Amino acid sequence: MIEVIQRACKTCKWRRRRRCAYKYRRRDSALRKCINAARNENLKHLEGLVGEVGAGKNSLVRSFRNEQFKYVEIRGKVSNILLEDNTMDVIVAGQCMEHWYQRGDTLEQGLTQIHRVLKPGGLLYIDVPIHSHGLKLFKDGDIDEIMKIFPEDSWEILKVEKRRIPCAPLAEVPKQVGDINPYPLVIVTRSKNEVRRDFEASE
Ligand SMILES: C[S@@+](CC[C@H](N)C(=O)[O-])C[C@H]1O[C@@H](n2cnc3c(N)ncnc32)[C@H](O)[C@@H]1O
Questions:
Q1: What total of structural domains would you count in the chain?
Q2: 124, 172, 183, 195: which could form a disulfide with 30 (CB 3.0–4.6 Å)?
């Protein structure tokens, strides 16, 4: 059984956007504020070579660069990452996995490539929207089912975190369905030693 932490920022006053302690743009939704807060807490003090898949135009992760933290934007499809094996210390894929299928990539294809380019022991940081949009797996939001995409022989699960306690309605999120409210799920995993080549072998 995977332990799922439920948490919000100590200072979270999400109903009043001006009180949010974290960086956000005026037009950002309340959901986006929670995403940014989670990234600030988890990613700001990373070290090494940090790659981002599906960075988009305004990557918050890119802005965390410092002397210890070198940023690499990973462009193109996640199923075809143009990096050498075992080169990256960290890979970030934020609000991205739920869209991979729209460009013809399966979750397994993407995760196999990410595993290949991570150094042994390298970290993968993922955040996905739950009960919101994209792949049905994430819209359904069954966390035990979601965690099955990280095979035990390749990934050590370090953290699974539901942001906000409780997952109360977010008035600013327009796509709310009935009583189900979207929230960001954060997953941090560590790559286990061997590079998985089973996907490439089956090509
Ligand atoms: C909703 S945007 C998220 C952007 C940014 N990470 C953020 O949090 O704002 C989804 C991103 O996933 C990327 N994406 C979608 N499918 C992809 C795939 N199969 N391979 C790589 N990137 C993909 C898109 O190009 C886009 O940049």
A1: 1
A2: 172
